[in-house]
Design brief:
The complex is a heterotetramer, with 2 copies of chain A and 2 copies of chain C. By secondary structure, chain A is of the alpha+beta class. Helix content of chain A is 32%, strand content 27%. In chain A, a hairpin with a 3-residue loop joins β4 (119-125) and β5. The relative contact order of chain A is 0.20. Chain C has a single domain (2-109), classed as Transcription Regulator spoIIAA, CATH 3.30.750. The relative contact order of chain C is 0.19. The chains are: A alpha+beta, C alpha/beta. Chains in contact: A-B, A-C, B-D. β1 (6-12) of chain A pairs antiparallel with β1 of chain B. The structure holds adenosine-5'-diphosphate (2 copies). Chains C, D: Belongs to the anti-sigma-factor antagonist family.
Amino acid sequence: MAAETSVKLVIPSRVRLVDLVHSAAEKIAEIAGFSDDEMLNIGLAVREAVINAIKHGNGEDASKEVEILLEVTGRGLRVRIQDGGAGFDPEGTPDPTAEDNLLQTSGRGLLLIRAFVDDVRFNYKQGRGMEVTLEKALKTG
Amino acid sequence: MAAETSVKLVIPSRVRLVDLVHSAAEKIAEIAGFSDDEMLNIGLAVREAVINAIKHGNGEDASKEVEILLEVTGRGLRVRIQDGGAGFDPEGTPDPTAEDNLLQTSGRGLLLIRAFVDDVRFNYKQGRGMEVTLEKALKTG
Amino acid sequence: MKSNVRQIGHVSVVDLSGKITIGEGDVALRNAVQEILDAGNQHILLNLEKVSYMDSAGIGELVACYKRAKEKEGSVKLLNPSGKVYDLLSLTKLEEVFDTFKDEKEALVSF
Amino acid sequence: MKSNVRQIGHVSVVDLSGKITIGEGDVALRNAVQEILDAGNQHILLNLEKVSYMDSAGIGELVACYKRAKEKEGSVKLLNPSGKVYDLLSLTKLEEVFDTFKDEKEALVSF
Ligand SMILES: Nc1ncnc2c1ncn2[C@@H]1O[C@H](COP(=O)(O)OP(=O)(O)O)[C@@H](O)[C@H]1O
Ligand SMILES: Nc1ncnc2c1ncn2[C@@H]1O[C@H](COP(=O)(O)OP(=O)(O)O)[C@@H](O)[C@H]1O
C-alpha cells in the first residue's frame, strides 16, 4: 500500500453503498487536513466518480466490484476509483452547461468531479476497466 | 466477494484510521436493518477488534495491513478482521471484571467485543495472521 | 430527505430537508412533486433552505420536476438554496433555468 | 472530546462532551485531569452527561485518572453517565470502583 494514511475499499456495484464510501472520503479528507468546505467538495467528487463506476462502468452488476483507494499524500489527497467496465472517452461527453443541454436530467457528474478537485485523470486499463484518479492539494500558506 | 451488500476495507496499521472503519461498520449495520442502539454496539465491537489488530496483531507497524470485511448476510451482519500478526490464545486473557483486575488500565477490549455481538470466532491462519469473525443476527418478530 | 407540503393559495410550497441524492432523496423529491401534480396543482415552490447538498442525481431530479410541471402548464421555482446547493446550481448553470428567491412572500406573488 | 473545568469549593467539576476514545478523547481526558492534579487539587467530579460513548482505551483512561488521584489522596467520581456510557461502566463492573451520582449537588457534598 502506497501511503501510510490510506484506505482501500472494495464494494460490489450497488448504489446503496455509495453513502458509505462518500463518508469514508470525507473522513480521509478531514484527516488530510482539508477545511470543512473542501471536505464536502472532495466527498461529492468521489461520490460522483463512484456512482459512475457502479452505473456506467459495471452496469450495476453486483458481481462486479468497484475499488476505491483513498490516500493522504505529501501534498494532499489522491483518490483512485477502478471499475471493471469498458471505459469511455471523457472528452466525448456533452457539455451539460450548453444552452441545449440545460434541461437534460443527467450528464452532470463529470462536471462536478472536475469542479471539485484539482486534477482528474482517466486511464483505461486493458482487461481491468476504467481507473479514474482524482487529486486535490492542500492549500499552503 | 461473498455478499451483495458488503464492503472490504484495507488499512495500514494506524490508530488514526479507526474512526473511519468504525463509521463504515455503523453504516453497514444501518443498511442491514439494525436499530440505532444495536448499530452503536456493533460499531464498538468492530472498533475494538480493529484496534487490537492494529496494536497487538500488527504492533502498529504501518507497513502491515489490517483487512476488514463487512458483510450483510441473510441473517444479519458478519464482520471479519484480519491482521498479519502471530495470533494469541483468546481463552488465556485475564478476566477484566475479576476483583483483582478492576483497576487495570487495559484488557477490556475482548469483553466489549463479546458483549456486543452474538458470536466471536478467533481463527489463526498460518502465514497470514489472526482472523477475528464477529456475527450479529437481526432480531426477528 | 424529508418533505412537507404547505398549500398557500394556488402555490404548493415544499419544505425539503436533508440531502437530495441518488436512491433516496431523489426518489422522495420525485414522489412529493408527483403527488402535487396528481392532485391538480401545478405551481410549486421548493424550499431548499434546509437541504445540505445534492448530487448529480438529485440535480437531475430537480430538472425532471421542472419539466413535469411545465408539461402541465405549471412551474417549479426555488426558495433559499443555501451554501453548497447554491454553488451546485450556479456551477451547472441551472440558475438560468430556475427562478430563485430569497424571500418566500416574493416567491409566492411571482407565480 | 471537549472539557471544561469548574472549581466549586475544593471540588473540580470537569464537564466532558463528545467521545472518550483512543488517540484523542483519552489523551484529552488525561491532560484535563493532570492539570487539575498539578494545580494541587485532587477531588475530581467527571460530568459524563454529554459523553456519547467510550471505547476500551477511554475506559482505561478513566481508571488511570482514578489511580492518579488516589495516589495524591484524592478521588475521581462520576456524574450522570448516560445510555451507552452507563452500560459500559456496568459491563466492565467499574460501577464497583467509581462512586456515581445523578445529582451534582449530592456529588459535591460527598467529597
Ligand atoms: N466509469 C465510467 N465507465 C464508463 N462510462 C462512464 C464512466 N463514467 C462516466 N461515463 C460516461 O460519461 C457520461 C457522462 O457521465 P456523467 O457526467 O457522470 O453524467 P451521468 O452519469 O449523469 O450520465 C456517462 O453517461 C457515461 O456514458
Ligand atoms: N489481534 C490480536 N493479535 C494478538 N493478540 C491479541 C489480539 N487481540 C487481542 N490480543 C491479546 O489479547 C489481550 C486482551 O485484549 P483486549 O481485551 O482487547 O485488551 P487490551 O487490548 O486492552 O489489552 C491483549 O492484551 C493481547 O495480548
